[in-house]
Amino acid sequence: MKIVGLTGGIGSGKSLVATMFKGFGIAVYDSDLEAKYLMNTSVKLRKDIIALLGESAYDKGGLNRKYIAEKVFKDADLLSKLNGIVHPAVQHDFLQWVKRQESPYVIQETALIFENNAADRYDYVILVITPEEERVKRVMERDGQSREKVLARIKNQLDDQHKIPQADFVIKNLIKEDTHESVFQIHKAILAEMA
Length: 195
Prior knowledge:
Layout: E1 2-8, H1 14-22, E2 27-30, H2 31-41, H3 43-53, E3 58-59, E4 62-63, H4 65-72, H5 76-99, E5 105-109, E6 124-129, H6 132-143, H7 147-155, H8 160-163, E7 169-172, H9 176-194
Parallel strand pairs: 1-5, 1-6, 2-5, 6-7
Antiparallel strand pairs: 3-4
Helix pairs in contact: 2-3, 2-5, 3-5, 6-7
């Protein structure tokens, strides 16, 4: 089974693109969603995260996402350490998930393929790009964060210009109809390669 990585910066529209691929019957693994689930349910991850970030990393409701975001998005070293704890667990979970899928290929939606030098894990990598101003606007509306916080999060990710040459496919996500057509063409191209 072919494994496709779907990546893009925060606010680029990865989830929209993933939903479009699902519409073609392709199984999609949402790494962010699964990471949150694992961070809330895995005793080992919980222990390791508390050791790194302190008891406040969890509250009565589970993972204290606001506290964690405030700690790691202004400290690249701490973010790297947290990713070093969470990413291997997510990747293990993903590989187990792949074994249960029946679609012609699967997609792993994940933000940091190029930042983690992980492109070689995939048969193809799809990069979703959107102008920075649009990304900032989307994240401010979606997450209720200030412009400064959104820009700080964007700064923690590689610039699109560094990612584009490494991607097998690039989707410019600004006009929904154009994005859908790009997804359709990529879907057809991957199926044709598999034939």
